[in-house]
Specification:
This protein is 2% helix and 46% strand. By secondary structure, the chain is an all-beta fold. The protein has a five-stranded mixed β-sheet with strand order 5-4-3-2-33, with no helix packed on it. The chain has a five-stranded antiparallel β-sheet with strand order 17-16-15-14-32. The longest helix is centred in the middle third of the chain and has 4 residues, at 217-220.
Length: 551
């Protein structure tokens, strides 16, 4: 389904008014040594803003900066983290105490630090059961605890978390892989894994069958045998399905795989115009201009010729490179090994921290245009039955018959961890008709009538609270589906009860109207399958939900 948010492709000269300003020194980030490597955002002290961590390449440097509003404070030593290094940085609540813990992943000596909640960390590596070189965090068995995916000398393996920071071996696969991203490509709410190679193995898509990881690469049509150094997952065409973009360090260049919704992908790189170059280091989906379409940022090794690219999503199936006019590309910029996107100043747009080999350690503040609309809604999720960071949650913002979908990620690519809060660009929209949250636990919650330009917090099973401004109470109208996705009749519960449910297909065509008098919805799709929008209208308001009917 295509988003109804306006396109910005025709903005022309006005777009140049938006720039990214390098502010590292201005906010107190300086004094680092070596070549930049990994980067990660996380609210490690639970004060509501994003703190920053990053490392250098040779393993001699790791830095933790606390976000103090207008400046960042280097607390590495005070936190007990001096003398560390990291190839990957993973944050997550692994121990059940509501504080984000830290995994510093290195091929030879991975360390696990427990957050004590007072600004200090304790090394709990011994006895943790963590082996190999962890790549990302996700709840692979959907037990409410955040697990790890680790790379080993022979392949990869899931490390299941007992809930107190002690891990045990889970399913794995054999191969020679370099980087990874979780992508719930089949929308069954368990995280599947796409792996990129820099060695002898081909890229691989592993379907998560809980007790086993099944190789579905060929069936899914996502084969690639070159060198992939970065992977990002996101919905580039606003159809509610997670797509893949591969940052490749070999010919013919990068690849954009579009999810077809039937377990397969199509290579749409050429038609979208995002082949790029053959020396790409890293890539990330991000909506830098708040127009509701996922753009793609990539960085390359050849910093003399083409540096970085910001592929602006034109909303018509194509992209345009606007990196230079945004101030993100130029001579002696780029070769970034690690990128982390997050809103460090809480002003409603995505900022970028990059660690690399040329300009080394740089924080780019996103300074949006004052003449082009850039409304937003930022959503922080707090799991209760699900993992506390809500990694794996699928969140959809709906306007009428269009929608924008984002997923909470626990890391992707080789060195990238973006912030956990999800930001939805709304362009000129002043409110959100529906916010739908599909939690990893299986719970589906909806909030409606939410004013734009605020940061809200949603606690699983407890509802929404706003911050940063006043807003109206969410209307108590809901449409909750009992099983989704499903293979047969759709059952749901309506509140406050009676009303009219209209069913739309992906093209916006009405499939069926159902008058409900009892508060219980029953809809038989017959031989239909795919994605459907169910719109519930009652005297108290409107609620919208999405149903996935499996073939």
């Amino acid at each position: 389904m295509k988003s109804i948010l306006p396109l910005m492709a025709a903005c022309g000269a006005a777009l140049s008014q938006q720039v990214f300003t390098e502010v590292s020194g201005e906010v107190g980030i300086s004094g680092q040594t070596g070549l930049g490597h990994a980067a990660a955002w996380c609210d490690m002290d639970n004060d509501g803003d994003q703190d920053l961590s990053f490392s250098n390449q040779d393993g001699s440097g790791f830095w933790l900066y606390r976000n103090d509003g207008s400046v960042f404070t280097n607390i590495t030593a005070a936190a007990g983290l001096s003398g560390q290094g990291a190839g990957r940085i993973i944050w997550g609540e692994f121990t059940g105490d509501q504080h984000s813990d830290l995994v510093l992943s290195r091929s030879s000596s991975t360390r696990f630090f427990v957050n004590e909640g007072d600004g200090t960390f304790t090394d709990m590596t011994q006895g943790s059961g963590i082996t190999g070189s962890p790549s990302l965090a996700a709840d692979f068995d959907l037990d409410g605890e955040l697990d790890l995916l680790t790379m080993t000398s022979s392949g990869c393996a899931v490390l299941h978390n007992s809930g107190n920071g002690v891990f045990s071996p889970g399913p794995g696969a054999q191969g020679d892989w370099w980087c990874a991203a979780c992508v719930d490509y089949d929308l069954d709410m368990d995280p599947d894994i796409y792996l990129g190679t820099y060695g002898s193995s081909a890229n691989t898509l592993l379907r998560n069958d809980v007790s086993v990881l099944t190789d579905v690469t060929v069936q899914a049509g996502v084969e690639y045998g070159g060198s992939t150094t970065g992977i990002t997952a996101g919905d580039w065409n606003n159809d509610g399905l997670p797509d893949l973009y591969l940052a490749n360090y070999s010919a013919p260049g990068c690849i954009l795989f579009e999810n077809n919704g039937d377990g397969t992908f199509s290579d749409v790189t050429s038609s979208a115009g995002v082949t790029g170059h053959t020396d790409t280091r890293t890539a990330a989906f991000t909506d830098y201009n708040n127009d509701g379409w996922a753009d793609i940022f990539v960085s390359h090794h050849d910093f003399y010729s083409y540096s970085n690219i910001m592929w602006r999503n034109n909303g018509d199936g194509t992209f345009s490179d606007v990196g230079s006019e945004l101030g993100l590309s130029g001579e002696f910029m780029g070769d970034y090994f690690g990128t982390a996107w997050g809103d460090f100043d809480d002003d409603g747009d995505q900022d970028l921290f990059a660690a690399g080999h040329i300009d080394k350690y740089v924080l780019f503040r996103n300074d949006r245009s004052e003449t082009i609309p850039g409304n937003y809604l930022t959503v922080t999720l707090r799991g209760t039955d699900s993992n506390r960071d809500a990694v794996g949650a699928m969140v959809t913002v709906t306007h009428g018959s269009g929608s924008v979908t984002r997923w909470v990620s626990g890391g992707e690519g080789y060195h990238d961890l973006h912030s956990f809060p999800l930001e939805f660009g709304l362009y000129d929209r002043e409110n959100v008709e529906l916010l739908e949250i599909r939690w990893p636990s299986g719970l589906v919650e909806t909030c409606s009538g939410i004013p734009a330009n605020q940061h809200i917090v949603v606690v699983e099973g407890e509802g929404m609270s706003g911050s940063g401004g006043s807003h109206e109470e969410t209307r108590t109208v809901s449409l909750t589906l009992e099983s989704n996705p499903c293979m047969g009749p759709v059952s749901g519960i309506l509140f406050p009860g009676e009303g009219l449910v209209s069913v739309y297909d992906c093209s916006g065509r009405i499939v069926q109207r159902i008058q409900v008098d009892t508060g219980i919805l029953q809809w038989d799709p017959g031989d239909r399958s795919g994605l459907f929008i169910l719109r519930y209208e009652s005297t108290s308001g409107t609620a919208v939900s999405r149903a996935v009917i499996l073939p």
